[in-house]
Amino acid sequence: MRKGILNFAMIIVIILGSIVAITSCRAGKQRQFLKREGEQAATFYFKKGQKTRDSVYMKGVIYAGTLKDIRRVFNQNNEITTLVMEEVPGSMDDEVNLLASREIRKRGVNTYVPKNGWVASGGTDMFLAGKKRNIHATAKLGVHSWRGDEKTALEYPKNHKEHEKYLKYYDEMNIPSDFYWYTLKAAPADSIHWMTLDEIQQYKIITEPFSPSKK
After folding, report:
1. Which tens digits make up the pLDDT trace of 6-54?
2. Residue 187 three-state SS
3. Is residue 30 part of a domain?
4. Are strands 140-143 and 193-194 parallel, antiparallel or unpaired?
5. How far apart are CA 171 and CA 174, in angstroms?
6. Does residue 191 lie within any of the structural domains?
7. Maximum Cα–Cα distance for the chain, whole Å?
8. In a domain, 150, yes or no
9. Of 43, 88, 102, 127, which sits with the fewest C-beta atoms within 10 Å of its C-beta?
10. Is residue 8 in a domain?
11. Sequence-ordered list of residues with C-beta below 8 angstroms from that of 210, at least 6 positions apart, any chain
12. Can you tell me the distance from the alpha carbon of 125 to that of 128, in angstroms, rounded to the nearest whole number?
Protein backbone atom coordinates (compact mmCIF):
# COMPACT_ATOMS: atom_id res chain seq x y z
CA MET A 1 0.00 0.00 0.00
CA ARG A 2 2.78 2.41 0.91
CA LYS A 3 4.55 1.65 -2.36
CA GLY A 4 1.35 2.37 -4.28
CA ILE A 5 1.01 5.74 -2.55
CA LEU A 6 4.61 6.57 -3.32
CA ASN A 7 4.18 5.69 -6.98
CA PHE A 8 1.02 7.82 -7.17
CA ALA A 9 2.86 10.73 -5.55
CA MET A 10 5.69 10.37 -8.04
CA ILE A 11 3.21 10.44 -10.93
CA ILE A 12 1.67 13.65 -9.56
CA VAL A 13 5.10 15.26 -9.26
CA ILE A 14 5.96 14.25 -12.84
CA ILE A 15 2.65 15.63 -14.16
CA LEU A 16 3.05 18.91 -12.29
CA GLY A 17 6.63 19.21 -13.49
CA SER A 18 5.49 18.66 -17.07
CA ILE A 19 2.80 21.33 -16.75
CA VAL A 20 5.33 23.84 -15.43
CA ALA A 21 7.75 22.99 -18.26
CA ILE A 22 5.02 23.36 -20.91
CA THR A 23 3.86 26.68 -19.44
CA SER A 24 7.44 27.99 -19.31
CA CYS A 25 8.00 26.97 -22.93
CA ARG A 26 4.79 28.65 -24.04
CA ALA A 27 5.67 31.77 -22.08
CA GLY A 28 9.08 31.95 -23.73
CA LYS A 29 7.62 31.62 -27.22
CA GLN A 30 5.03 34.29 -26.49
CA ARG A 31 7.70 36.70 -25.21
CA GLN A 32 9.68 36.18 -28.41
CA PHE A 33 6.58 36.73 -30.55
CA LEU A 34 5.71 39.94 -28.73
CA LYS A 35 9.25 41.23 -29.13
CA ARG A 36 9.12 40.60 -32.88
CA GLU A 37 5.84 42.50 -33.03
CA GLY A 38 7.32 45.48 -31.21
CA GLU A 39 5.34 44.73 -28.03
CA GLN A 40 6.49 43.64 -24.60
CA ALA A 41 5.28 40.92 -22.27
CA ALA A 42 3.70 42.23 -19.08
CA THR A 43 6.20 43.21 -16.41
CA PHE A 44 5.72 44.22 -12.78
CA TYR A 45 8.08 46.76 -11.27
CA PHE A 46 8.67 49.51 -8.73
CA LYS A 47 9.61 53.05 -9.74
CA LYS A 48 13.10 54.35 -9.10
CA GLY A 49 13.11 56.33 -5.90
CA GLN A 50 9.80 54.85 -4.76
CA LYS A 51 9.79 55.24 -0.98
CA THR A 52 7.30 52.49 -0.19
CA ARG A 53 6.32 49.28 -1.94
CA ASP A 54 2.60 49.45 -1.41
CA SER A 55 2.09 50.13 -5.14
CA VAL A 56 3.51 47.93 -7.90
CA TYR A 57 3.41 49.06 -11.53
CA MET A 58 2.46 47.00 -14.59
CA LYS A 59 3.09 47.49 -18.27
CA GLY A 60 2.78 45.18 -21.29
CA VAL A 61 0.71 42.36 -22.76
CA ILE A 62 -0.59 39.64 -20.44
CA TYR A 63 0.94 36.32 -21.50
CA ALA A 64 1.41 32.71 -20.35
CA GLY A 65 3.94 33.69 -17.67
CA THR A 66 1.85 36.43 -16.07
CA LEU A 67 0.28 34.23 -13.38
CA LYS A 68 3.72 33.07 -12.23
CA ASP A 69 5.08 36.63 -12.41
CA ILE A 70 2.25 38.18 -10.42
CA ARG A 71 2.40 35.51 -7.72
CA ARG A 72 6.13 36.05 -7.36
CA VAL A 73 5.87 39.82 -6.98
CA PHE A 74 3.04 39.51 -4.45
CA ASN A 75 4.81 36.79 -2.45
CA GLN A 76 8.02 38.81 -2.31
CA ASN A 77 6.27 42.07 -1.37
CA ASN A 78 3.50 41.48 1.15
CA GLU A 79 2.97 45.23 1.59
CA ILE A 80 1.50 45.66 -1.92
CA THR A 81 -2.01 47.11 -1.79
CA THR A 82 -2.38 48.56 -5.31
CA LEU A 83 -1.57 47.43 -8.84
CA VAL A 84 -1.00 50.52 -11.00
CA MET A 85 -1.71 49.55 -14.61
CA GLU A 86 0.18 52.03 -16.79
CA GLU A 87 -0.25 50.46 -20.23
CA VAL A 88 -1.85 47.03 -20.58
CA PRO A 89 -3.13 46.60 -24.16
CA GLY A 90 -4.59 43.14 -23.67
CA SER A 91 -3.87 39.46 -23.31
CA MET A 92 -2.63 36.72 -25.60
CA ASP A 93 -3.63 34.03 -23.09
CA ASP A 94 -7.16 34.43 -21.77
CA GLU A 95 -6.98 31.44 -19.43
CA VAL A 96 -3.89 32.78 -17.67
CA ASN A 97 -5.38 36.27 -17.62
CA LEU A 98 -8.45 35.13 -15.72
CA LEU A 99 -6.34 33.10 -13.28
CA ALA A 100 -3.96 36.01 -12.67
CA SER A 101 -6.91 38.36 -12.24
CA ARG A 102 -8.47 36.07 -9.66
CA GLU A 103 -5.14 36.10 -7.83
CA ILE A 104 -5.41 39.88 -7.56
CA ARG A 105 -8.92 39.67 -6.09
CA LYS A 106 -8.00 36.80 -3.76
CA ARG A 107 -5.23 38.93 -2.24
CA GLY A 108 -7.48 41.98 -1.87
CA VAL A 109 -5.29 44.18 -4.07
CA ASN A 110 -6.73 47.39 -5.56
CA THR A 111 -6.25 48.45 -9.20
CA TYR A 112 -5.61 51.91 -10.57
CA VAL A 113 -5.01 53.37 -14.04
CA PRO A 114 -2.86 56.52 -13.66
CA LYS A 115 -2.60 59.79 -15.56
CA ASN A 116 -2.44 59.10 -19.32
CA GLY A 117 -2.53 55.37 -18.58
CA TRP A 118 -4.71 52.90 -20.44
CA VAL A 119 -5.91 49.33 -20.41
CA ALA A 120 -7.79 47.49 -23.13
CA SER A 121 -9.35 44.11 -23.85
CA GLY A 122 -7.90 41.56 -21.41
CA GLY A 123 -6.20 44.45 -19.60
CA THR A 124 -9.62 45.87 -18.80
CA ASP A 125 -10.70 42.45 -17.54
CA MET A 126 -7.71 42.39 -15.21
CA PHE A 127 -8.47 45.91 -14.00
CA LEU A 128 -11.89 44.65 -12.88
CA ALA A 129 -10.19 42.28 -10.43
CA GLY A 130 -9.26 45.13 -8.10
CA LYS A 131 -10.97 45.05 -4.71
CA LYS A 132 -11.21 48.81 -5.13
CA ARG A 133 -10.90 50.27 -8.63
CA ASN A 134 -10.14 53.81 -9.66
CA ILE A 135 -8.76 55.72 -12.65
CA HIS A 136 -7.28 59.13 -13.32
CA ALA A 137 -9.51 61.48 -15.29
CA THR A 138 -7.19 61.15 -18.32
CA ALA A 139 -7.01 57.33 -18.20
CA LYS A 140 -8.68 55.20 -20.89
CA LEU A 141 -10.46 51.84 -20.69
CA GLY A 142 -10.90 49.93 -23.94
CA VAL A 143 -13.27 47.09 -24.76
CA HIS A 144 -14.15 45.02 -27.80
CA SER A 145 -15.56 41.68 -28.90
CA TRP A 146 -13.56 38.49 -29.41
CA ARG A 147 -13.24 35.95 -32.16
CA GLY A 148 -12.86 32.20 -31.81
CA ASP A 149 -11.33 29.80 -34.32
CA GLU A 150 -14.49 29.71 -36.41
CA LYS A 151 -16.89 32.42 -35.27
CA THR A 152 -17.11 35.82 -33.69
CA ALA A 153 -18.48 36.05 -30.16
CA LEU A 154 -21.92 37.28 -31.23
CA GLU A 155 -22.30 34.34 -33.63
CA TYR A 156 -22.41 31.96 -30.67
CA PRO A 157 -25.80 31.57 -28.94
CA LYS A 158 -26.06 33.38 -25.62
CA ASN A 159 -26.22 30.08 -23.74
CA HIS A 160 -23.11 28.68 -25.48
CA LYS A 161 -20.28 27.42 -23.26
CA GLU A 162 -17.83 29.83 -24.93
CA HIS A 163 -19.48 32.69 -23.03
CA GLU A 164 -19.51 30.93 -19.66
CA LYS A 165 -15.94 31.58 -18.51
CA TYR A 166 -16.31 35.32 -19.02
CA LEU A 167 -19.76 35.55 -17.44
CA LYS A 168 -18.56 33.54 -14.45
CA TYR A 169 -15.54 35.81 -14.04
CA TYR A 170 -17.61 39.02 -14.18
CA ASP A 171 -20.03 37.56 -11.65
CA GLU A 172 -17.13 36.82 -9.29
CA MET A 173 -15.95 40.41 -9.67
CA ASN A 174 -19.48 41.77 -8.99
CA ILE A 175 -19.68 43.24 -12.48
CA PRO A 176 -23.16 43.07 -14.09
CA SER A 177 -23.46 40.48 -16.85
CA ASP A 178 -24.80 43.24 -19.11
CA PHE A 179 -21.24 44.54 -19.28
CA TYR A 180 -20.09 41.41 -21.08
CA TRP A 181 -22.77 41.67 -23.77
CA TYR A 182 -22.09 45.39 -24.08
CA THR A 183 -18.38 44.72 -24.84
CA LEU A 184 -19.31 42.33 -27.65
CA LYS A 185 -21.35 45.03 -29.37
CA ALA A 186 -19.08 47.98 -28.54
CA ALA A 187 -16.47 47.15 -31.20
CA PRO A 188 -15.44 44.18 -33.35
CA ALA A 189 -12.47 42.02 -32.33
CA ASP A 190 -10.06 43.91 -34.60
CA SER A 191 -11.07 47.33 -33.26
CA ILE A 192 -11.48 49.01 -29.87
CA HIS A 193 -14.03 51.20 -28.12
CA TRP A 194 -12.86 53.61 -25.43
CA MET A 195 -15.48 53.72 -22.71
CA THR A 196 -17.23 56.97 -21.91
CA LEU A 197 -17.63 58.19 -18.34
CA ASP A 198 -21.34 57.33 -18.47
CA GLU A 199 -20.51 53.76 -19.54
CA ILE A 200 -17.87 53.41 -16.84
CA GLN A 201 -20.40 54.44 -14.22
CA GLN A 202 -23.25 52.41 -15.71
CA TYR A 203 -21.33 49.13 -15.54
CA LYS A 204 -19.75 49.78 -12.12
CA ILE A 205 -16.24 49.68 -13.57
CA ILE A 206 -14.80 51.89 -10.83
CA THR A 207 -15.73 51.69 -7.16
CA GLU A 208 -15.15 55.37 -6.32
CA PRO A 209 -15.25 58.67 -8.22
CA PHE A 210 -11.99 59.40 -9.99
CA SER A 211 -10.11 62.59 -9.22
CA PRO A 212 -8.12 64.70 -11.71
CA SER A 213 -5.70 65.51 -8.88
CA LYS A 214 -4.55 61.89 -8.52
CA LYS A 215 -1.31 60.89 -10.19
Report:
1. 344 443 333 334 334 445 678 888 878 778 888 899 999 999 989 899 9
2. coil
3. no
4. antiparallel
5. 5
6. yes
7. 66
8. yes
9. 43
10. no
11. 134, 135, 136, 137, 139
12. 5
